[in-house]
Design brief:
The chain is an alpha/beta fold. The chain is built from 7 helices and 6 strands, in the order E-H-E-H-E-E-H-H-H-E-E-H-H. Helix 1 links the parallel strand 1 and strand 2.
C-alpha cells in the first residue's frame, strides 16, 4: 500500500489563511499509516517530512507514482486539499480517466503543477486515458480503482459528515502510472470559511484519516 501526501517541500499546494495543503496532507497521511500498520498492513509513504521528491513537478510526480509500479503494491492513494470559493464544501475522490467537465480539467491542471507544466502533464495523462480504452489490463486497473474510490468516498463522508461531491474520473498525472488501483482524494476545501478551519485541526484530520484507513481495510478485505 502506498500513501501519497500531496505536495511538499518547495510545493506547498493550495495555501489559505487557514492552512497549507502540504501540512494537512502529511499529517493525515502519517495518521493513515499508523492506523493501517496497527492492522498489519505494509505501508510505503511517498514522503514522511516536508520535502519534495524531484527538482521539477514532473520528476516529483513520477517519483511518487513509480513507488506503486511494483507487483507487490495493492493500491495507491494520493491525498489532497481542494480549493474553491469561500462557500465551497465537501469531499470528492477520483480515479484515472478522461474528465467529464471543463472544471475538472482545470483541477487536473492545478494538481499537475499549474501553468504550462500542468497543462503539459495533463495532456500526457489525457493521451494515456484515451489509450486505456482498448487495454484489458488497464480496464482491470480502472475497475479496481473505481471500487477503491467508492469505498474511500463513502467512508470519508460517513466519518466527517462533509457533503458528498461524488466520485469522478480525471487525468491526474500522479495516478496515471501505477499499475494497481490508484486514486486521488480531495478531503475538503482549504479556503472554505467552514472547512478550512476544520481541516487545520488534529481532531478533524483524525476523522479524515480514519475514513481513509477504514476504506482501505475494506478494500483489502481486512477488519
Amino acid at each position: 500500500m502506498v500513501i501519497d501526501p500531496g505536495h511538499g517541500g518547495m510545493d506547498p499546494g493550495m495555501v489559505s489563511k487557514y492552512l497549507r495543503e502540504k501540512d494537512v496532507t502529511l499529517s493525515v497521511g502519517l495518521r493513515v499509516r499508523e492506523l493501517l500498520r496497527a492492522k498489519g498492513v505494509d505501508v510505503v509513504m511517498t514522503r514522511t517530512t516536508d520535502t519534495h521528491l524531484g527538482a521539477s513537478k514532473r520528476t516529483d510526480l513520477d517519483a511518487r507514482s513509480n513507488l506503486a509500479r511494483a507487483g507487490t503494491v495493492s493500491a495507491y492513494i494520493s491525498i489532497h486539499v481542494n480549493a474553491g470559493s469561500p462557500g465551497s464544501r465537501g469531499v470528492e475522490t477520483y480515479y484515472f480517466g478522461q474528465p467529464l467537465s471543463s472544471d475538472k480539467r482545470a483541477l487536473a491542471i492545478q494538481e499537475n503543477g499549474a501553468g504550462s507544466i500542468g497543462q503539459e502533464l495533463t495532456r500526457k495523462a489525457a493521451d494515456t486515458a484515451q489509450n486505456l480504452l482498448g487495454d484489458i489490463l488497464s480496464q482491470a486497473k480502472v475497475s479496481f480503482s473505481r471500487d477503491l474510490a467508492s469505498k474511500v468516498q463513502a467512508s470519508l463522508v460517513q466519518q466527517t459528515g462533509a457533503p458528498n461531491r461524488g466520485i469522478h474520473t480525471n487525468t491526474f498525472y500522479v495516478i496515471r502510472n501505477p499499475n494497481t488501483a490508484a486514486i486521488l482524494t480531495e478531503i475538503g476545501f482549504g479556503n472554505s470559511d467552514r472547512e478550512g478551519p476544520l481541516l487545520a485541526t488534529k481532531a478533524y484530520q483524525e476523522k479524515v484519516a480514519r475514513g481513509i484507513a477504514q476504506a482501505i481495510l475494506a478494500f483489502l478485505h481486512l477488519k
